[in-house]
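How a chain folds remains the central question behind the approach discussed here. This step matters because it turns folding into a mapping between discrete strings. The sequence in question and its structure tokens are set out directly beneath this paragraph.
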Amino acid sequence: MSKEPTEEIVELKLRIPRSLRSEFKSICAARDENMKDVLVAHMRKYIEQHKAEKSE
């Protein structure tokens, strides 16, 4: 069984207010969600919403 090639993973560091991170972390934990997964999902949604603008 062959594995499909995976995309290279890179690190993204952000400087955000502690309170924002704490609240986000708490909400993710309460919903049993991984913070990274939630952020990646939002980034993908943002890209899709704005792709058309890029090509104009």
